[in-house]
Design a protein that fits this description.
GO terms for molecular function: NAD binding; precorrin-2 dehydrogenase activity; sirohydrochlorin ferrochelatase activity; uroporphyrin-III C-methyltransferase activity. This protein has 464 residues and is an alpha/beta fold. Helices cover 36% and strands 19% of the residues.
Amino acid sequence: MRLFPLFADLKGRRVLVVGGGTVAERKVRSLLASGALVTVGSPAITPELQQLHERGTISYLAQPFQPEWLENIWLLIAATDDRDTNRRIAALAQEKRLFINVVDDPVLSTFQVPSIVDRSPLMIAISSAGYAPVLARRVRERIESLFDHSLGTLVTLAARHRPAIRLALPDMRRRREYYDWLLDGPVAAALRKQQPQAAEQALIEKLQHQDGPTKGKVVLVGAGPGDPGLLTLSALRALNEADIILYDRLVSDEIRELARRDATQISVGKIPGEDHNATQERIHELMREHADAGQYVVRLKGGDAFVFGRGGEELEYLRSHDIAYEVIPGITAAMACAAYAGIPLTHRDHAQSLRLTTAQFSRDTTAEDWASLAQANQTLALYMGVSQLDWLPGQLIAHGRSPDTPFALIENGTRRDQRVLHGKLEDLTAQARQHAFKSPSLLLIGEVTALAPKLHWFGASIST
């Protein structure tokens, strides 16, 4: 371990910053946030530091570095642009046994200022020992996405009730379980919803009824079309908190790999040709079984749970069985696949409306419905359409859509093996068969798709 991690209490303690530029300014802001008494020493300082001095927020020594500045201070930061001066300051700090950070010089430093994820009073610090600060910042950005801002409020709430928690739960194992429940259960959920009174009430009730069974919950999570970069921050947090993950067939492996390592993952995807209603009943039963066992269940669905995902049916089931639930939306395939294919779903010159539907509608659809689907100047997004390509284009053409209408068939949209087929509606069936397009594929029909060959930026593009 190159460095010993340490959180220092600087409130009311004197800290010296030597240097008056923008780097020194950033260090001063962080130190002031911790309550330190900051002195800046430099012949010149930035306008913001000057304002802080004029307001009495910091002390200012307007001259080159003097050794006597090191008397009666707790911590030292050297932020000058002169390495010889920094080396001299570091040597004097060594003599006086003062911890010093020399900006961008880990060799001269005895402590490093880490990248911070601030959920006060919860603080997460990341350090590369000063050798790769950009990497530390990138790691911080990733960690930022995992921890909701309500965590700080949760820590404060737990601290306020800590004596009662210790009294009610003297056994360390049960106390740990209780804190896990605070993080994963209704208290944290209520704080995320900006319901602090409900959160505190849940905390108190749990303390008063320790012998009762723990109630679980189900979170419907939209996983998007496949690219893990399109997951929402809330979805990523849910995957890292889940005990049980019930995932669909189209959820990518890359997304499942982001889940908590010890979570149990159960495939519940519907297979073409099976009884989908029976499969849906099995999903309902699994959600109920694990939630009743007090577990955090994530129902992980491709795209968005409420766009052709039967999410509404699952919520109705959960509601009827008094099971707590939440919904985390996902980016639906029409939006994501179109964007990755360079296709604007609406465009003032080509399409003023957008229709989302599945291609598995009945061949007995009325002529009026077909005429509506075949209207020009709209974009038609058809989900689950590959199996219907033998007859679908002909029906649209027969009800008024021009045979020359452009289309885009997007296979494995947003994934590494994405392919996009472009052409005219009258050629769609033959071209899809020739290039062996398979599920999952999204079909877009309309004038906007003609822009795709020009605006294409991701994956393979096939024009016919």
